[in-house]
Amino acid sequence: MTKNFKRTTVTSALPYANGPVHIGHLAGVYIPADIYVRYLRLKGEDVLFVGGSDEHGVPITIKARNEGITPQDVVNRYHTMIKKSFEEFGISFDIYSRTSSETHKKTASDFFKTLYDKKEFIEQTSEQYYDEEAKQFLADRYIIGTCPHCGNERAYGDQCEACGTSLSPLDLINPKSTISGSTPVLKETKHWYLPLDKHENWLRKWILEDHKEWKPNVYGQCKSWLDMGLQPRAVTRDLDWGVPVPVEGAEGKVLYVWFDAPIGYISNTIELLPDSWEKWWKDPETRLLHFIGKDNIVFHCIVFPAMLKAEGSFILPDNVPANEFLNLEGDKISTSRNWAVWLHEYLVDFPEKQDILRYVLTANAPETKDNDFTWKDFQARNNNELVAIFGNFVNRALVLTHKYFDGKVPARGEMTDYEKEIVSQISNSKFQIQNLLDNFRFRDAQKEAMNLARIGNKYLADTEPWKLAKNDMARVATIMNISLQITANLSIAFEPFLPFSSARLREMLHLPAFNWADLGSIQFLPEGHRLGEAKLLFEKIEDEAIEAQVLKLQKTKEENAVTSVTSVTPVKENIAFDDFTKLDIRVGTVLDCQKVPKADKLLQFKIDDGLGGRTIVSGIAQYYAPEDLIGKQVCFIANLAPRKLKGIDSEGMILSAEDADGKLVVISPSGTVKPGSEVG
Predict the structure, then answer these.
(1) How does pLDDT run across 611-630, given as a tens digit for each residue?
(2) Which residues of 353-368 are buried (b: 16+ CB within 10 A; e: fewer)?
(3) pTM score of the predicted model
């Protein structure tokens, strides 16, 4: 049931301040959020757009330790860089702050204390690794050891990056502290947990029954988590970087970053509006929207709402229009491999061309599935759409008006049936764009806005006013009046998508104050209104500029390949032949393959092993689509002791090799063999 709200609070995922932002961030979260906010503002609605940097957590402490600086130094550097990038690309936050601010520390601390006093947490004591030399508990990433699955001697406490298997520190063989190099010991520690299982029933109704209008990818991921059953989640951890846990006996503990980060939306609002922030977060007549990527769906649809509900005074999100991921030139964007288009670098190579990237990223928005950015498509969309359609129409409309009517809007005479149909199309276009924006379909909404320019181009091509100018200036006046009204409509329709270009167009039109209600009107520019100078809105991008970007990526790929080759793990110590013969390596046929819920990197295989069949879980989900592996023959170790992964008994290990690009490739026989055949 649709409800009318007085105002809207829009948040966008807090980017992690241990690196700059890239086009994947922009396409998945920040452009969609900005489009929607600009649209609401054009409609005159009361809207607040909140953003900020996520500045706590282990990766930041690791980067600081590696660079010999403090965590605050790290986040200061990247917060400044990220904030500037957003400003340069027109992401129109009302506030962009940070989770290391004093306001945030107090807000997050108070939030925790409220839940603590209400007994909304459970306390649990567990054994965790402790570095006696460094005198601190070790986060998973501060522990390395030998992977029990593939033998990689530098596996982390949360994952083996060689075989992709999710791990716990207790799984590692011969664990070592990365801080001191010493062998850690197990030591008891107490932490507080949010019992998500306690909230499961109301979450199930609230999401699965009350919010069936949510995007299928959001609704489906939430249903998967709920169907598997929710478990308590730790809200504190042993670390010295973060918001201190504000209760007695919690010295040396901070709020877990997943708990403290979403509270940043609230604290940033308090920082901006200290006297009126509550109406944006507690008034039932306020609509709350979270714009995020798919990796944050669970946190914003299940965990954060559970936190807000437990606190008791906050509204819950009305919608969470999450997007999928954007790839780059057919490969997954990777910050560690520098496989990305960084926003601060883009503006060096393409100065003042923010709108071109905004346009292309919206046109390729990963709204329902992962999508791909290529430099060739970037060039084609600029040259064939922005230049040849939008820019061409605007330029012709203004240049012809200056030529024939001294730069003033001419009088419009009686319209033909064809022109009345065009006026009808302009009016209808407004409602189509509006409906698409209301339903978070930004890609289609931008396409519909571009159709206005197509209508204008076709109209000029069909009427040919330059030919009529010889003997029928009255008709030319009508044609140019309608063309200019379409141009004015374009400046409004594209404002949410291309704010810089729309501003330049309004300057050329000397356009008075405008709002969304004006869209669809052909009475926008009055007769006699003087236009400004006609300038090109967009310019063609030449092959050389694109080739330079492609070469830059190719160089990155080559550097990664060299790094991969030079960083190959040294050969382990020789073993006796008898040790090798203990391995039972066989060939099996994949009967079925599917992703393991709540584990992005794991695939569950049903293998015909010639012995009655078995289940194997393997960490190669980011390299293969499950359906591509069904029917394929693979080599696997048949005599590994069964191991439970994500609640599934894995009866062996599928063999794979890592290529020069870091991709895992399953090892298969060169020809078809009988399932169960031994490899020796």
Answers:
(1) 888 999 998 887 787 777 87
(2) bbbbbbbbbbbbbbbe
(3) 0.82
